[in-house]
Design brief:
The complex is a heterodimer of chains A (995) and B (511). Chain A has 995 residues and is mainly β. Chain A is 9% helix and 48% strand. In chain A, the strands form 10 sheets. Chain A has a 22-stranded antiparallel barrel. Classes of the chains: A mainly beta (995), B mainly alpha (511). At the A-B interface, strand 23, strand 24, strand 25, strand 26 and strand 30 of A face helix 1, strand 1, helix 2, helix 5 and strand 6 of B.
Chain lengths: 995, 511
């Protein structure tokens, strides 16, 4: 090292020596973007006061003092450049924006130029995120990155419903969620939801070993790296104000319209259940006599079909010579599709970077957020589990005969007949509001004591408070004058310190090296408590202490985990043609057993830029061509904080005395889940028309962290262990076509595609198969995660009884030969041939523009997706749920005259069962995002000098869905859906004004 | 180099600080324990773990543990609003399979409790008390653990095995797990072996609890409770002489258990949990319901609420919206003068079903309406203190045992004592009158299945009360349900989950 440095200084000295005499030179400064001359650029001889400005042709003349020949050229909005003076030289300046665009995140250390990174990374720019109508920027990533599978499992406002995985499910037990990093600080998808999507400059998806292994223990599922906007040095302040207003509604109303109306339902009951004594007379006695003769559309009553959504934000970006800044604030409001549900968010951000000295850079980057939300817990969201409530998730079953209004036309507070509370009244008397204050940010200092050596230290935090106040007012009749008040408080943080040292050097201008070393410490803390009391007797006195002391209840829980890591990386390239990189990382984690805390992960990768080879010089149509290969290991530690530790815990007190029991057996041998990842790829650009990126990957997971099942007779049903192996293989394709490009028009088409093939290669306890009880899902060695379920064989035309296929001797083979009419879930379960995880995910976008008009349409699709529609068990099962509403399709039932019916004879005690008739094909394609914009021409704005730009946008989300799925929403990312709110759709009109 | 030596030093210091940071993190809401070490190191540990046994025992009562028994038999009809709660076991049709949750819970909750009992028995044996009183305390606690384990195995064998009889040495019951072992995959023991183990545990309990005198409503096991459990054991294995003897021992205990003989006393007993009938009555308070989730999705709320589901609104005020109402057979088994009928059944409480006010048209079962002091809202919530053993059952065991033993006179005396106390007409002691008295006296306690199995009987039909046509599920699968004595469903299915993880288990026939 020392020897090399000396060499470096020697070569500098030689350069200086060459220009000892005073000389006058001329040159031209041009914009690299368009080749146009830059007028008024400052040219300065470094180390002197000597300077000059360029003329209208970009030309300058300058006299170099003796011994000086280094020039610094700078101009507002462009990156300053230092060059060695030479007569007649042409100096190209890069605009700041372009400079930013061309940097790619690689995880720790400084960014890399596009096209020089060995790792597989895909970046989604702010344009895709900025006007998306969703609270979370992550929602807009659906269909944008090959291999990044994004599903939004509910349409509830304020639900962090986006689930993501990269290249399939990497573990059957531990989380498959990628590592989220915001400006270098490990974070979470919930924190990204607490950010204004407009604050985000880019989201980079790191996919292969070269890109991810440097993140070691948490990188097995890939990395989503969020970079927020920063201002630009030497740029004029730019103020942007955006506003959007629109409607939020359920994407699939047709589902509810497929339920019977009152007259259809009455007729159906008589037709289908006459044998049970359901006659017109019976119905009159049961319903008409009590005044139940309405035709209420309960879905209109229980849901909001025209909820309001607004979003506004303002940002100011700019910078001077030493400081650049981005200050922003935003507001987001969305009323949900269920009564009482809303989400409100306010954010403020300050990103300030300074370069006070040539050798010193500092910066602070802070996002404050305040959001509040209220759910309607009668419906399920993405993580609430099932919601089989007639007031919500199963409200399609509500009998339309029951009235909404009394005889005077007033709406009931509680509807007679179904005893359902008026949802508005109910939510008003049961407020349950979550407030979340969040802070995510970091501060860094970077020192360059010698050129190209960067020592950086960064501390950051992702912390938040969540406070929930929930109440039942004593005035609520169901409370019998006795209210309830509960309050919970949650304080969580994840603190990170990262120290890195990076040195870039080259040898003989051909061998380019970057060496990085570093360490990182992370501490995660979760701290929660709640208190509750009952017996408040006045709506205005709803404090905890207003309840009865005898009802006081409270609970506390807290957990903590720590990670400590050391890492290093070496990047090398020869003539920017042959690239090699290697990384290594050692992690220790408190979650594992004492002897198994440390693990080392590594990667190696190579890239060959073939297009730079001489033998391709003649092929002008090959603009760029690269071949990449990388291999490496990563880990996964996404389990509970104390899974390794055996624990004696407390049970409910007995006679007011503490009770203990052995509540968790622990596993002292617990350690990391490990992954080996190989990626081979080809990318490039051809005919100056098509960009392509194709890669093939093999992920092999071993020592999976799984809850291994044990018999109830042992007293513990599950212990977390390192077991089994899993493999995901697949291919990613990204294609981009510049179909049209002209002076004032363009048309681009982009498509991404991922095929992933999952295979379980080993399970636990030597098993070849494990069926997870009551889920319909089975792990089978040699196969992907499959649905194992009784296979429905339709209705026997002879007698109207439902039938099922009898499994063969080997239930791993789908066997549809003999049938039975006796239903026994356990005995009839067999391989349905349907995969739990869809193998194909993709999307395509069309973007075009003509003059000020622009249009962008983003479609995403998932193929081979299956979902157990548990809702249908209720809305297509009138024999079990007589006198509830039912799907119109149920009228097609077996009778001696209608032997070719969809459903069995409803009397004779035939009911629908949990079998493959519920396992529906939930493949879908969605118009995820449609945006039409119009940029007002500059000349229309020319009469004034405040507004620089004005753009009007129309935005829609989930406007169009194609699917064969019969339930509410095919997008739910689960094996089974019951009572969940379907995805929403939005129509927004907006304006973007720049000053 | 000097310039950046300084920074490197800072960096190095930073790294050093973190390297030396302690990676050990221990939970705060529990105590870490390494398998194999002594769990009980002092008397305080012992007391808290012992109290954990009390809670474990409490979780094995009421809720689905007793409700499933009742609704499988002939005493109750599902209502139009029952929402498929206990649907499979009530219809006992093809949907009643090894995937059934209610039968699984009986299995899982008991084995969860047995794990706690086993660990305690294992570790208390190694405990050295600091003095004689600590040692004596540990002995009693050991006796309690054995008593509890016997109670759990009795519940299990009664549901998953065939009734005790000639083939019990080969009939399969449940696995006998007597020591905690995470890797063990036990096979099912025979009915005889399980009963032998129950007796062995009760023998230990009888010795160690000999000095713990009975008292009305004892919150922890007493010698009377041991005898009450022994009485159940003896009547099951058809050792009638011993059954009668131990049952009478409890009846005549110095503790003074007494049947309620007036409506006020019935009210004190069954509404306020302040009566004289319980041999044990477990702890509970407004703040301490004892409800516990023992496994993922396996939870017992310890309330028998399916008969009432009391709620409240402006239109009706407080009203019942039960999932199950008593059958015609149950209601008509009582005479109008019977205190039990007067106290436990009512047609006066507002009852709304299927959206219609059906008050007065039929009787509801309100034995577990709820203790007014165990609700904070004023709305009865079906919470009552748990009564594992009531003195009435001892009269029935004594009468049945004497009758089967040919001592009809003695049987009549005991039976009449019960009938007289309850305001029922006195009858001869016959198979029919004794069995009817079981039905009337213990309804709701979750003993009905065992009675049918022990008697070798079934039931024929489950007609709804007159006037309840609009309230109940009226199809034949519900009201027409019959079960013969040899119906295979009397032996509950081994849970499907258990069969999957433990290949040494075999399923009961017919599932």
């Amino acid at each position: 090292m020392k020897k090399r440095l000396t060499l470096f200084f020697v070569s500098l000295f030689l350069c200086v020596g060459a220009a000892l005499a005073q000389t006058k030179i001329t040159g031209t400064v041009l914009s690299q973007d368009d080749g146009q001359p830059i007028i008024g650029a400052a040219v300065q001889v470094i180390g002197t006061q000597t300077g000059s400005l360029t003329d209208v042709n970009g030309k300058f003349t300058i006299t170099l003092p003796a011994g000086k020949n280094a020039l610094k050229v700078s101009y507002l909005g462009f990156e300053p450049k230092e060059v060695i003076a030479k007569n007649g030289m042409r100096i190209f300046l890069k605009s700041d924006a372009a400079a930013l665009d061309e940097v790619v995140v690689v995880g720790y250390g400084s960014g890399r130029k596009v096209g020089t990174v060995v790792g597989s990374v895909t970046t989604v720019r702010s344009e895709k995120l900025s006007v998306a109508p969703s609270a979370s920027a992550l929602d807009a990533l659906q269909g944008q990155v090959a291999g990044l599978n994004v599903l939004t499992s509910s349409g509830e406002s304020g639900d962090n419903a986006v689930s993501m995985n990269i290249h399939g499910i990497g573990s059957l037990g531990a989380s498959s969620t990628p590592l989220y990093v915001i400006d270098g600080i490990p974070s979470s998808s919930r924190t990204i939801m607490a950010m204004n999507p407009n604050d985000i400059e880019s989201v980079t998806v790191l996919k292969d070993a070269s890109a991810t292994s440097i993140y070691g223990s948490r990188a097995a599922n890939g990395v989503i790296y969020v970079t927020t906007k920063s201002g630009k040095f030497n740029s004029d302040a730019k103020i942007t104000f955006r506003t959007q207003y629109g409607r939020n509604t359920l994407a699939n109303k047709g589902f509810y319209e497929g339920m019977m109306n009152a007259s259809e339902l009455r007729q159906f009951w008589i037709d289908a259940f006459g044998d049970w004594g359901v006659t017109e007379e019976y119905l009159q006695n049961r319903f008409d006599k009590n005044g139940y003769t309405a035709d209420t559309k309960w879905y209109e009553v229980l849901q909001n079909w025209n909820a309001v959504q607004t979003q506004n934000d303002i940002s100011i970006e700019g910078g001077g010579e030493k400081v650049k800044y981005m200050i922003g604030a935003s507001q987001f409001h969305q009323d949900g599709t269920t009564v009482g549900n809303y989400y409100d968010r306010y954010t403020a951000r300050a990103n300030v970077d300074g370069r006070p000295k040539d050798w010193l850079k500092v910066g602070v980057n802070v996002n404050l957020s305040y959001d509040k939300r209220q759910r309607n817990s009668n419906w399920g969201n993405s993580d609430s589990g099932n919601a089989n409530y007639l007031a919500g998730g199963l409200s399609m079953l509500q009998n339309p005969l029951y009235p909404q209004y009394d005889e005077d036309g007033n709406e009931y507070n509680r509807y007679p007949g179904n005893n359902l509370w008026n949802p508005v009244y109910y939510m008003n008397t049961h407020p349950d509001q979550y407030l979340r204050y969040g802070l995510v940010g970091n501060a860094y200092v970077e020192i360059s004591p010698i050129k190209n050596l960067k020592i950086m230290s960064r501390i950051g935090t992702d912390m938040y408070f969540v406070r929930d106040n929930w109440m039942t007012y004593p005035s609520f009749p169901g409370a019998n004058g006795s209210g309830t008040k509960g309050k919970s408080m949650d304080f969580d943080y994840s603190n990170t310190i990262t120290n890195t040292i990076e040195y870039k050097f080259n040898i003989a201008n051909e061998h380019n090296f970057t060496v990085l070393g570093g360490m990182e410490g992370v501490e995660n803390n979760y701290d929660y408590f709640y208190a509750r009391s009952n017996g408040q007797d006045d709506d205005r006195l709803m404090n905890l202490q207003n309840g009865l002391q005898s009802t006081y209840a409270m609970s506390e829980s807290s957990t903590k985990s720590k990670f400590l890591s050391f890492f290093g990386r070496l990047d090398y390239n020869f003539q920017e043609k042959y690239f090699v990189d290697a990384s290594i990382r050692n992690d220790a984690c408190s979650r594992f057993g004492v002897n198994n805390r440390n693990a080392t992960f590594w990667s190696a990768g190579a890239m060959w830029k073939i297009s730079k080879e001489n033998f391709l010089k003649d092929y002008k149509w090959v603009n760029d061509l690269n071949v990449k290969v990388s291999y490496g290991t990563q880990g996964n530690a996404s389990i509970g904080d104390y899974a390794a530790i055996g624990r004696i815990g407390t049970l409910s007190k007995y006679n007011d005395s503490p009770t203990w029991a052995y509540t968790s057996p622990g596993n002292p041998n617990l350690t990391w889940e490990k992954q080996k990842l190989l990626t081979i790829g080809v990318s490039g650009r051809l005919f100056n028309f098509m960009d392509f990126d194709v890669s093939y990957y093999v992920r092999k997971t071993s020592d999976m962290l799984m809850g291994v099942p044990y018999a109830y007779t042992t007293g513990f049903e599950e212990i977390t262990e390192n077991v089994g192996t899993l493999q995901n293989k697949g291919i990613d394709i990204e294609l981009n076509f510049n179909i049209l490009k002209g002076k004032d028009y363009y048309l681009n088409f982009r498509t991404i595609f991922n095929y992933n093939s999952q295979k379980i290669t080993e399970l636990f306890q030597g098993r070849d198969r494990w069926q997870i009880a009551n889920t319909g899902v089975a792990y089978v060695v040699g196969s992907p995660v499959m649905f194992y379920y009784p296979v429905y064989a339709g209705v026997d035309p002879a007698d109207g009884a439902p039938m099922w296929y009898v499994p063969g001797n080997n239930i791993d083979e789908n066997h549809e030969v003999e049938t039975t009419k006796d239903f026994d879930e356990a005995a009839l379960e067999q391989n349905t041939g349907k995969k739990r995880y869809p193998p194909i995910n993709g999307g395509f976008s069309i973007t075009g523009g003509w003059k000020g008009l622009s249009i962008a349409a983003d479609f995403s699709y998932v193929l081979g997706k299956y979902l157990i529609n548990n809702d249908a068990y209720f809305y297509q099962n009138p024999g079990n749920f007589l006198f509830y509403n039912t799907s119109k399709e149920c009228a097609d039932f077996w009778t001696p005259e209608n032997t070719d019916a969809k459903f069995p004879c409803w009397t004779n005690d035939h009911v629908m069962q949990f079998d493959t008739h519920l396992l529906e094909n939930a493949s879908f394609m969605r118009l995820k995002n449609l945006q039409i914009g119009y940029d007002f021409p500059k000349k229309l704005l020319g009469f004034q000098n405040v507004v620089k730009g004005l753009k009007i946008t129309l935005t829609g989300r989930n406007l169009w869905t194609i699917t064969n799925y019969g339930g509410i929403d095919p997008e739910v990312n689960s094996n089974l859906t019951l009572g969940k709110i379907g995805n929403s759709k939005q129509y927004l009109i907006g304006a973007e004004i720049t000053f | 180099m000097k310039k950046y030596n300084k920074y490197l030093l800072i960096l190095g210091l930073g790294a050093f600080t973190l390297t030396s940071c302690n990676m050990e993190e221990l939970p705060k809401t529990s105590i870490s324990y390494v398998d194999g070490k002594d769990m009980i190191t002092n008397i305080e540990d012992l007391i808290r773990l012992e109290n954990g046994l009390n809670q474990s025992y409490r979780v094995t009562h009421y809720g689905q543990i007793s409700e499933a028994d009742e609704v499988m038999c002939d005493g109750f009809n599902a209502t139009v609003d029952y929402g498929n709660n206990f649907g499979s076991i009530h219809r006992t049709d093809n949907s009643f399979s090894s995937s059934d949750y209610d039968t699984r819970d009986m299995w899982a909750i008991n084995y969860w409790a047995i794990k706690n009992y086993n660990l305690f028995i294992e570790h208390v044996a190694k405990f050295q008390g600091a003095d004689a009183s600590e040692q004596a305390y540990a002995d009693v606690a050991d006796g309690e653990a054995h008593f509890y384990r016997a109670a759990s195995y009795l519940q299990l064998v009664r549901h998953f095995g065939k009734a005790y009889g000639a083939s019990s040495t080969s009939d399969l019951a449940v696995p006998l797990v007597l020591k905690y072992d995470q890797q063990e995959k036990p096979a099912r023991a025979t009915v005889a072996a399980v009963y032998e183990q129950i007796k062995a545990d009760l023998d230990v309990a009888a010795t160690k609890l000999a000095g713990v005198k009975g008292e009305i409503g004892a919150m922890t096991p007493t010698i009377d409770a041991v005898n009450a459990l022994l009485a159940r054991y003896y009547i099951d294995i058809k050792d009638y002489a011993n059954a009668a003897t131990v049952a009478k021992k409890v009846i005549n205990s110095a503790a003074g258990y007494a049947l309620a003989t007036t409506l006020e006393a019935m009210d004190a007993e069954y509404s306020n949990d302040k009566g004289t009938e319980p041999i044990m009555q477990l702890a509970g308070s407004l703040a301490e319901s004892g409800a516990t989730e023992v496994f993922d999705n396996v939870e017992n709320d310890l309330v028998n609420d399916i008969y009432t589901m009391t709620t409240n609104d402006k239109t009706y005020g407080m009203y019942l919206r039960p999932y199950f109402i008593p059958s015609k057979k149950l209601v008509e088994s009582y005479e109008a003068t019977d205190l039990r009928f007067q106290a436990w059944f009512t047609n006066a409480f507002t009852c709304v079903l299927g959206g219609a006010d059906l008050t007065g048209q039929f009787y509801n079962f309100v034995k577990y309406l709820g203790n007014p002091s165990l609700t904070s809202t004023g709305i009865p919530n079906a919470r009552q203190l748990i009564k594992p053993f009531m003195i009435g059952e001892m009269y029935l065991i004594a009468a049945e045992a004497d009758f089967r033993d040919g001592k009809t006179d003695a049987a009549k005396t005991t039976l009449n004592a019960l009938q007289a106390a309850r305001g029922a007409s006195l009858t001869e002691a016959t198979e029919e009158t004794i069995e009817n008295e079981w039905f009337k006296e213990t309804v709701g306690e979750g003993l009905r299945i065992n009675c049918f199995k022990r008697w070798g009987k079934g039931f024929d039909g489950r007609a709804a009360q007159d006037g309840a046509e609009q309230a109940v599920q009226s199809s034949a699968a519900f009201v027409g349900k019959s079960m013969t004595a040899d119906d295979i469903h009397w032996q509950w299915p081994i849970p499907a989950y258990e069969l999957k993880v433990n290949e040494n288990l075999v399923q009961n026939p017919g599932y």
